[in-house]
Write a structure and sequence with these properties.
Two copies of one chain form a homodimer.
Chain A lengths: L2 H8 L3 H8 L7 H13 L6 H8 L4 E8 L8 H15 L3 E8 L3 H10 L5 E5 L6 H9 L3 E4 L11 E4 L1 H14 L5 E5 L5 H16 L9 E3 L4 H12 L7 E4 L2 H13 L9 E6 L15 E4 L2 H16 L8 E4 L2 E3 L10
Parallel strand pairs in A: 1-2, 1-3, 3-4, 4-5, 5-11, 6-7, 6-8, 8-9, 9-10
Antiparallel strand pairs in A: 10-12
Helix pairs in contact in A: 1-2, 5-12, 6-7, 8-9, 10-11
Chain B binds a DNA duplex (30 and 30 nucleotides) through helix 2 and helix 4.
DNA sequence: CAAAAAAGCCAAAGCGCTTTGGAAGACTCT
DNA sequence: AGAGTCTTCCAAAGCGCTTTGGCTTTTTTG
């Protein structure tokens, strides 16, 4: 059932039927009702390919997925996706993932924009002066950045959490508890979020005349194993920290294992605070010692970004507003006063 | 730069240019070369929307993503995606995720097929007599099932791993080590994979005249917390098992925590084997006691399914061949002889 | 060497929608 | 009543590609 048939059946022109269906004003309300009714009754759905060709609108949002044998997609991604999908569903938006060589995403961005394959894109895990953001900005497709870049010479719309504030608070708490030697087990410090977190910790330390020792900060891919290794290195060192801030729950698993392997305890020998993106399958309160966390649902962020993308597509949102969400600090059993 | 312009520039008809580009035989080889060359030089890329409208081919594969506030997308999904993306990239295939109400996926399947939004779809986590498989089969769109359904009255193409064989082997090993009371902490037993795993364990037990006690099998969502709870329940029971088979590494984290909380040890008091889908961020050899696993890379499965989908789209693969991959049993420190 | 076959190309008709530029009729004013 | 203004609808022109059917020109064949 296509427009032509429907129009013929109603003894109307395609123009009128199309307009009635798309809510244009120049059509009699009763006619519109008739059309709507017939469309529903016959299950008419406009062919998206045709509509795309005519309008350029696709009803899809895009994401360039970096791939490659040595590239691991972050497990955070799936939670983010849950949120995004949740919103997208209610608006009949689909998401298209365009796999790209991790070292050459530019080609793919250019392709999806040139081909008008999607109405908008989002960018995640931005780095300082992120080239993708610059590219997408000049290409002129609506977009939202999940996270922030820094050092770009233009503004852009983003939704981020207050990573600096979160880790500042976490560090401040530890300092108040008497800790003097903090360590930070961070994610890849080429990404802005990690830079912000380190900044937060440093700022809290500086406020008390303390520093983050050079060997007390490390930046690695967020796996259990890396958490373990980093912790061993920190604690077997000459000047071990009494408190650790950690950028992910998954790494925290490794931290806990390392502490135990060394015959130490949490929080007796070392306090621990980790960032929690709120995975349904791994919860900080269920660690052997319930974990204190800085908490922010990445799923909610996904939904919010879908919402903003939809708004930009339909022209409801414009400009370059960045929004920064506060992060909860949730204190549980894994922090205590510094050992004597 | 569109076809018309390119044709005009070459003083050829659109027909000829189109045919030259798409490899049709009725065009002189030298002409073809000229066209190809000019196309490349001017960066001509056919507009996909137009091509879609004319041919019905989209260059995309589809996946219906169940969403909803209470629906968690499996973290396995992201690993699968890595593999899929890896292959798709090299073939300029995009993946479109269509979010759907988890309780009504049928509407979405019908929509993407009726609208010809994708060239093929894949289905994951099938259940026995899976309605999605039946639906997609009658709708007549090319598809591959990741996993298997059972009890359908037609054949269909799938790629699955030998879940029954894997858990049969695992259980057999435990039995050989003298264990008599095995327990199975399984995934949701509405899904075929879980059913197959249970079947494998039961078959191994039966071969030695043993049984899987009713209270020694549980089927839950694969979270850390559920692994913990199940283990506590099992071990605090009157008739505790001496060995546990577990359907996921994430649950195994909970198992390990529970065993420790009870003051017991692995493998001294209880042996443990878990299934490992090969996540880069959580590896069985890095558990406090290195974990024995049944191992199968879900990422490889993703790549394989992309490959088969591509083959079906281009007509290279037909029929309903199902393939079943063997699973490795990797023995590490978490298994030992049954306690006296 | 003429007839038949093959090769190489083209014009034009879709694919199914949106949108431009009117046109016909109904209403409002003076 | 005639001029102007809405309201409501339509015919037709795209959007950029593929593909059908046919027309030349060249090659093959008996």
């Amino acid at each position: 059932m296509n427009l032509k048939q429907l129009a013929h059946m109603l003894a109307l022109s395609q123009t009128t039927v199309s307009r009635a269906l798309n809510g244009y004003p120049e059509v009699n309300e009763e006619t519109r009702r008739r059309v709507m009714d017939a469309a529903k009754r016959h299950g008419y759905r406009p062919n998206p390919s045709a509509r795309r060709l005519a309008t350029g609108k696709t009803g899809m949002i895009g994401y360039v997925l970096p791939t490659g044998a040595s590239v691991d997609i972050d497990p955070h991604f799936v939670e983010f996706l849950s949120g995004l999908g949740d919103y997208a569903r209610s608006h009949e938006l689909d998401l298209v993932l365009s796999p790209a060589d991790a070292d050459d995403q530019e080609t793919t961005y250019r392709r999806i924009v040139a081909n008008r394959q999607v109405d908008a894109v989002y960018i995640s895990s931005p780095t300082p002066a992120d080239r993708r953001v610059a590219l997408v900005n000049t290409l002129g497709i609506p977009f939202i950045v999940h996270g922030r870049s820094e050092g770009l010479d233009f503004d852009y719309p983003f939704t981020d959490i207050d990573n600096e504030g979160a880790f500042h608070e976490a560090a401040r708490l530890l300092i108040q508890l008497g800790h003097r030697r903090l360590a930070l087990i961070n994610g890849d410090d080429r990404e802005t979020f990690a830079i912000h977190r380190e900044r937060g910790v440093r700022r809290a330390l500086a406020a008390s005349g303390l520093e983050l020792g050079e060997r007390h900060v490390c930046s690695v891919a967020m796996t259990e194993e890396n958490g373990y290794r980093a912790t061993r290195r920190l604690l077997e060192d000459g000047d071990p920290p009494t408190a650790i801030a950690c950028s992910s729950l998954i790494m925290a698993l490794g931290v806990v294992r390392a502490v135990r392997d060394l015959g130490l305890s949490i929080p007796g020998d070392v306090s621990l605070i980790a960032h929690d993106d709120v995975f349904p399958w791994l919860r900080p309160e269920n660690f052997s010692v319930p974990l204190s966390t800085t908490r922010s649902s990445i799923r909610l962020a996904g939904a919010r970004i879908a919402e903003r993308l939809a708004a930009r597509i339909s022209g409801l949102e414009e400009g370059a507003r960045g929004e920064v969400w506060p992060v909860d600090l949730v204190v549980r059993g894994s922090v205590a006063g510094a050992p004597a």
